[in-house]
Amino acid sequence: MPVTQIRGVNINYQVIGEAGPWIMLTTGGRRGHEELVSLAKKLAAAGHRVVLHDRRNTGASEVLIEGDAGEEVMWTDDMHELMGKLGALPAFFGGTSSGARTSILFALRYPQAVRGLLLMRVTGGPFAAARLPENYYNQFIRLAQQGGMAAICATEQWKERIAANPRNGDYLRQLPVEKFLAVLTKWRDVFVAGVHLPVMGVTEAELASLKVPTIVIPGNDNTHSSASGLTAQRLIPGAQLHQLPITDQDVALIPFTEWAPYEEEIAGAFTRFIAQVTQGEKARPATASA
User: Fold this and answer.
1) pLDDT value at position 290?
2) Are 241 and 214 a contacting pair, CB within 8 Å?
3) Whether this model's pTM surpasses 0.70
4) Sheet of 3-6, strand order
5) 3-124+202-289 — its CATH code?
6) In whole angstroms, how large is the CA radius of gyration of the chain?
7) Domain residue limits, the chain
8) Where in the chain does DSSP place strands (E)?
């Protein structure tokens, strides 16, 4: 699988599809990109080129515990450079959960690089606000305080990063625990600042400022409630809504892999949306000259 250096970090990625509009899909949580391969293949079969990648500190990409900006800000900068290297800009950006949040942030930071947003399982609400800071940061801050980097390397999440890329083990074992704590605390504080917004990490004013075509497919668990998706669709000007034949479930998290039965429908909704956007782009110059 291809690897390229992006802003000082080796990033693991792949392109699925040979021709057609470019799409970058980003997965949720801190997981690698594999869970989106099946959907990407369906989109490729419908005439698209889909870029999947492991964000820094996820999957088989390298770990680098540095930076004052939040993780999602750094991810957007990596995404922009990777897509630029591939000659894939402007493109459609989207994903699930934190991948949807990061795609929104990307559109705010790089509006000229975005043809449209494909948002699934938007995160928001008090349950997610309480759960995610603990999952992403607080548990690891406590462990590092108690057991240093050896305790971090023994956790399931970081063991996965080491197994996927042994270089990450060498890096983490040599990393001063004081630096790990300082950076994760900063990242945690940046993240927590946005957890109580209607759409996590994005203000209503920022959502209202988006000027790119958008489609939203709401989630159906306590972390990605349908209400959060409906809020995003309402606040983003002109955003389309596609609701799957699902209902909210009173569970913390439904893995994206359990949405496999709906992938054909998702791919169809995205394909129709992209076709509409493409047709609109073609019509715009003629309209402007009329």
Assistant:
1) 36
2) no
3) yes
4) 3-6, 9-16, 49-53, 22-26, 91-96, 114-120, 214-217, 240-241
5) 3.40.50.1820
6) 19
7) 3-124+202-289
8) 3-6, 9-16, 22-26, 49-53, 91-96, 114-120, 214-217, 240-241
